[in-house]
UniProtKB/TrEMBL annotation:
Keywords: Signal. GO terms for cellular component: outer membrane-bounded periplasmic space. Its main location: other. This is D-xylose transport system substrate-binding protein. One of its GO terms (molecular function) is carbohydrate binding. Residues 1-24 form the signal peptide. The keyword Ribonucleoprotein does not apply.
Length: 371
């Protein structure tokens, strides 16, 4: 074969090899990055899907939804928010997400009913180049960003508050406590539970413990009634309730069960009803998770994901969701009791004094120095 022809063929083969290597590297990089989204612009606007899990907990409709929508409007005035609440039904949430994708949503903010089941939503969205921001609960699958609170810390704060108040009354093992945990389908509930156990185990007697399907206050009330029957009302000195809804259910059961004084009961979410119970002395504490920064971070993450940019704001960490390490922001929870209620809930404007101190609670508010 002619030497020039051989040299030309060798050069061509070399270029082909380089092209194949470059193609392989490019493909590998894309796969490893897990990147989706991009291509949208704030100037043109785009559709954003907001999927919240349920309405039994008052925070979602009262705080999360309007706060997220307001921040999205500020960051992207021409963007359109598509909103749905799943009413604690994971299949319904799946259908809602599919409908949003059909309507052209370019990014989803997802607070999953069931974290594992929501992996299907995340995977389906990624297949359509739509990024997903996991909000409050970390879904499985190729999630782009995640914002929540340090959920094990929440449980530790609850457990420590209960342990401290029981210790003030004497030996914390002098009788039993009841643990009413959250929904078994919510990964946050598992973290709350683990955090509380890390503080309470070996230091108190756990007489009865339950997981509460759907975070239902009614089911929590039934569980507490069962515990009272099994242990006896005189043998219960404290209740770990994972949120304010389950705390309300437990307190209702204790009142129906003839308790003249409600033993210290924990909570979470700083719901108005819980704040009023704290003022009245029925509930000992709640965990205040400032929803405004969480909501605003989620909105900023959604805009960043849709426009193909990195999230810039609060300090991020990596949290593994069983699929990958997700860039995350974990905020710090605060314990609220009657003693610091005015300096936290009232000072931050979560509720006004007028909202808390209705006629039913006016005297208790005055006694607590809330006015």
């Amino acid at each position: 074969m002619d030497r020039k022809i051989r040299r030309s063929m060798a050069a061509a083969c070399g270029l082909l090899s380089l092209a194949l290597v470059a193609s392989a590297c490019s493909s590998s990089d894309d796969k490893d990055s897990g990147s989706t989204g991009g291509g949208q612009t704030v100037d043109a606007g785009f559709k954003i899907g907001l999927l919240l899990p349920e309405s039994k907990t008052t925070r979602y409709e009262t705080f999360d939804k309007p706060l997220i929508e307001a921040k999205l409007k500020e960051l992207c005035p021409k963007c359109e928010v598509l909103y749905q609440n799943a009413d604690q039904d994971s299949a319904k949430q799946q259908s809602q997400a599919e409908a949003m994708l059909t309507q052209g949503a370019k990014v989803l903010i997802l607070d999953a009913v069931d974290a594992k089941a929501a992996g299907g939503i995340v995977t389906n969205a990624k297949g359509q180049n739509v990024p997903v921001v996991a909000y409050d609960r970390l879904a499985t699958g190729p999630v782009s960003f995640y914002v929540s609170f340090d959920n094990k810390k929440v449980g530790q704060v609850q457990g420590q508050a209960l342990l401290d108040v029981l210790t003030k009354g004497g030996d914390p093992k002098r009788a039993d406590i009841v643990m009413i945990n959250g929904s078994p389908t919510d990964p946050n509930a598992a973290d709350f539970k683990a955090g509380a156990h890390s503080v309470l185990d070996g230091k108190v007697n756990i007489g009865k413990e339950y997981d509460t399907p759907d975070w239902s206050p009614d089911k929590a009330q039934d569980q507490m009634t069962q515990a009272i029957t099994a242990l006896g009302k005189d043998k219960i000195i404290g209740v770990y309730a994972a949120n304010d809804g389950t705390a309300g259910g437990a307190i209702a059961a204790m009142k129906s069960g003839g308790f003249t004084t409600i033993p210290p009961t924990t909570g979470q979410d700083a719901e108005l009803a819980a704040i009023q119970r704290i003022v009245a002395g029925d509930q000992y504490m709640t965990v205040y998770k400032a929803i405004k920064p969480e909501a605003e971070i989620a909105a900023a993450m959604a805009i960043a994901a849709a426009t193909g940019k990195d999230y810039v704001g609060e300090v991020t960490v990596k949290v593994n969701n069983g699929t990958q390490d997700v860039t995350s922001v974990l905020l710090t929870p605060v314990s609220v009791t009657k003693e610091n209620l005015k300096d936290t809930i009232v000072k931050d404007g979560v509720y006004t004094v007028a909202q808390i101190c209705t006629s039913q609670y006016a005297a208790a508010c005055t006694a607590a120095g809330i006015s």
